[in-house]
Each structure stands twice: as C-alpha cells, then as structure tokens.
Amino acid sequence: MSQDQKHQVLKRKLGPEDLRRFETPAIERESHGQTSAKSSVPDSLSTVAVDFAGVTKSYGNKIVVDELSFSVASGECFGLLGPNGAGKSTIARMLLGMTCPDAGAITVLGVPVPARARLARRGIGVVPQFDNLDQELTVRENLLVFGRYFGMSTRQSEAVIPSLLEFARLERKANARVSELSGGMKRCLTMARALINDPQLIVMDEPTTGLDPHARHLIWERLRALLARGKTIILTTHFMEEAERLCDRLCVLERGRNIAEGRPQALIDEHIGCQVMEIYGGDPHELLSLVKPHSQRIEVSGETLYCYAPDPEQVRTQLHGRAGLRLLLRPANLEDVFLRLTGREMEE
Amino acid sequence: MIEDFAAALPANAWNWVAVWRRNYLAWKKVSLVTILGNLADPMIYLFGLGTGLGIMVGRVDGASYIAFLAAGMVAVSAMTASTMETLYAAFARMHSQRTWEAMLYTHVTLGDIVLGELAWAATKAFLAGTAITIVTATLGYAAWPSILYALPIIALTGCVFASLAMVVTALSPSYDYFVFYQTLVLTPMMFLSGAVFPSDQLPHAFQQIARCMPLSHAIDLIRPVMLDRPIGGIALHVGVLGLYALLPFFLSMALLRRRLMR
To answer: Which of A67, A118, B77, B244 qualifies as a FRET site for B197, CA 20 to 30 Å off?
Structure first.
C-alpha cells in the first residue's frame, strides 16, 4: 500500500480532527495551539487534572513508589513510562483511591484522594491492564450494568450506549457475548465502558499489552479520538513507541522514582541528542575499543552495542570490512533515554 | 484508619442493588440449570434418608421422620446455597474474574459490593429453601399455610451463612481452602444442630456447642413452623441469627479492605 493509499484509508477511519492529531506529533500539538485539544477546552478547565506531591508507598520493606511528584494538565496525554515493577499500576491504584499512600498528597480533579476518592471517581474512567469485563454478559449488558454502578438508570444508559458502541466500533456486536469477542474488541469495549460516566480523566493502565499489532493501532487511534474530545489521559506503558506517539508529556519511572520528565522529543534531545548506531553480530567488547574514539557514549546490552555518535559515518568507516557485523542507524528514542538514565533496557 | 474503614462501608442504602442486579442478570442466563442443580441435592437427601431411614427410625418428636427431616433439609439447603455462592462464585468475581475491581472504579464502595453479594447469596438461599418447603408441603410433610412464616427465616438463614462465608472468602488465598470450612465447620454443624436427628440426644457438652451454632437456631424456628407447632424463644433465635449476619459482615469488610485496598 502506498503512502497515499494509507492516508486515504486513515481518512476514512478517522474524523478530520483525529487526522489532524495523527498528522501532528504530540510535541507540535503542544506548541500549535489551534490544533490542540487543549485549546478547545475552556480556560477555566485548563487547570491541573492530577497532582502527585511527594507520594511514597511501600509494601513491607519494599518501596514501590518513592517520593513521586508530577502534575498533569487538563486535556493532555501524560505517560508513566517504566519497566514492569516500576510502580506504574500502584500509581494508577493510588490515583483511584484504591490504595492509600504512606506519605505525600494526591489531588485528582480538584479533590483530595483517597479522602474523597469516591467523588473523584465520578469524573474518572478506567481502562485496566487486565480484562475485567463480564464474560457471560453481552456487550450491551456490560455497558448497562456498568452504568448502574454510577447510579445511572436503564434509560440514561440506553441513551448513551449507541454512541459508545459506535466509539468502540462494536455496533454489530451489541448482542454478542463478551467471550465471543477478539482481544482488540474487548479492549475497545473496556474503553467504551470507561466512558459511560462521561469522565474528564481517563486512566489507561497498559492499554495495549498483550494485543496484536493491528489491535494496538486501533486502540491508539481510539485514544487519539479521546484526546481530540478534550479528555485528559494518563497512560501507563512500557512500550516506548506507544509513549512517544501518544504522550504530550511523560515521566520515566524506575523503581518508583521519577527519573526524568518532559515531552518525549525534549527528553530524547536532552539526554541523547544524536543518532544511534546499533552494532551487533560481533564481540561487543572488542568492538567497543574500536568505535570508542568516535562516539559520544557507548552502551553494551546483551550482544548489542549502542553507539551514540555525532558522526556515524566515522564509526561505519572504522568497522568497514569486518565480516558478519550488522549496523543499524536510527534516530534516538525513549528506550535510549531509559538506557542512558538507568544503564539497562526497558523491556525485560 | 477508622476514616479509611468508613470510606469502605456501604455508601448508601441502595447502591448494593446495582451489584445484586449484575449477579441476577448473569444468573438468569443459566437459571434453569442452577435451579435444578441446587434442588436435586437436598431432595435426594430428603427422600433418600427420609424414606430409607424413616422405616427404621419410625416417629421422631411426634412426627414422621421425613417430616422431621424436611425442616432440617430446608435450613441446610439455605445454608449450602448461600455458602456455595459466596465461597466459589463471589470469590471468582473478586479474584480471578476481577469483577469487583471493575466495580471499585465506579461510584460503588467495597461495602456496597459485599452487601450486594450477600443479598444475592441470600436470594439464592431463599429460592432453594422455598422450593423445598413447597415440595414437602405439597407432598403433605409440612403444614400449609404456616410454612409461609418459614420464608423470612430462610432468607435470614441465607444472610447468616453468606456473611460467615464472606469471612472465609476474604481470608482464603485460593479455592483450595474452602473445603476446610465445609468439612470442618459446616458438616459438623449440620449433625450437631438437629438437622438429621434431634440434638437433645447428644451429650450435654455437644448440646451446649449446638446452642451457639446459627444453624440450630434456624432449625428451631423453621421446624415448628413447618410442623405447625408453637415456637418458643423467637426473639432469642432471631437475635442470634441477626448477630451472626451482622458481625461477620463487618469483619469480612475489614478483612477485604485489607486484602483489596492495601
């Protein structure tokens, strides 16, 4: 499929506003006010949606969240990026008032949590990491039942269900049992379910973990549609690509600590600032000494050498003629930032 | 700490209905199968033991053995139905299916969930106990219309055993532990509480133990009603059952809060 055809398909799938978002990277969205969802939100709402101040949580002797502070503005997509065990899910649970912090203060939608978590939850939608739909109920029944948990009458739920089904692209599956749906459809239904109370803030905990690439793109596209509607999103993920594509800002977590925070590209520029040459297929330690003089910095991870070189051609020349080596030159990404900051890879 | 516990209590008097309705909706789809399953077991006991042992036993406390046994089986079936629902089905919704987790994202509190689950388990106990009452009355082993008074007691019995089972559910790491509660608590209780034979035949110490057990209070209320006899000590029996429904409810709430909201 040519780029043009892809573009056409995309245009069909997305609304005009979605497409603008798709075409405009997250960082530019921030700087170009007119295309930003944030700009469509009245000024009175452009406030802090979520604020963590010095939040600490430990289980036994293990500190899971360590003096964590961050703020999320209304209408932005904020990422919590980190490997498994970095404390992402615990942060999400604390935000919902399902776990009490040992120290620090949390404010969500202007309300202190966990003290008034129930009030805060009125304005929050949750897409959990693990599928917890009612398997034995149909798609429509799942939405109806969930509406009741928010005190919505059957009539009130029935009024919003068609638009939710349309959002989830499940109009034709309304009467199908959840157990008959594919993984991607289930996740779309979970997103639709999270919208039943028309929340201002949506918390998505690893929304694409365990999905195939096709379903992942569908979720990303739906997520963008939510941003276009002016929703605030907190996204936890360990996929750099996901964070880079979707997040206006993010914080990189390691063992519950905020080790870097900012816009994805700004973080990459600040911490890496050049292209990356990946070299593999040889003894990394032998190669290290060869390319070191031409590199700003070098990381070895497994059998791969990550060479951060201002002039990659010099490195290429240096390695010229060595059999069995594979070289890959690519732009720096958040994985490199994580590697730089922690000395290890994100995905374990 | 007390504030945290207060936040987990039922939010209001009606939130639990949403939880009850979720369970009802899911159950409706398989209702016929589960009704037959729930009824078959106590019916087989009733007619198997009633007719088989009845021949040897003759009359018990002035009634035919099967009529004596019927009241015991009604109470036991209510106990079993609500226990099973709370141990296995509610545990699945809490643990493996994560249904409770989804509920906790909403306006529903942990207390609303527990209350909804208990009410649902009591509903199933009510259905099971009532069905057996009607069958035995139709066959002439229980008295119309006084059996109608048994219905609220069956519902209360359902609440009691749902509440007790919720404590076990809150404490169990997995399904495997439920069998201890069933074999070490419920089965002895069935034999000590006068469900299958009169408890006044037991040694004095066992009788004292039986008096502390909720099942014997339920049977002491249900049996006279079904045999159309005067009931003694209604307030005491209802009071004991009420305590057995309420205290474990609050205990299970505290335990579940520690388990799920840590």
So the answer is: B244
pLDDT digits (tens, 9 = 90+) for B238-252: 999 999 999 999 999
Q: Which residue of B has its CA nearest to A130?
A: B98
Q: What is the CATH number of domain A43-265?
A: 3.40.50.300
> Cα separations (Å) of B197 from A91, A112, B64?
57, 59, 12
Give tens-digit pLDDT for A66-119: 999 999 999 999 999 988 888 998 999 999 999 999 999 999 999 999 899 999
pLDDT digits (tens, 9 = 90+) for A240-270: 888 998 999 999 998 899 999 999 999 999 9
Closest in B26, B29, B106 to A121, CB measured:
B106
Contacts by A22-26, CB closer than 8 A, 24 or more apart: A22/A221, A22/A224, A25/A265, A26/A77, A26/A244, A26/A245, A26/A246, A26/A247, A26/A248, A26/A263, A26/A264
- Please state the φ and ψ torsions of residue A50, each to the nearest 5 degrees: -135, 135
Choose the closest CB to B21 out of A124, A148, A194: A148
Give the ipTM: 0.91
Cα–Cα dist A169/A174, whole Å: 10
Q: Give span(s): CATH 3.40.50.300, chain A.
A: 43-265
Q: What is the pTM of this model?
A: 0.86
At residue A347, what are phi and psi to the nearest 5 degrees? -85, 125
The span from the CA of A175 to the CA of A115, in Å, is: 39
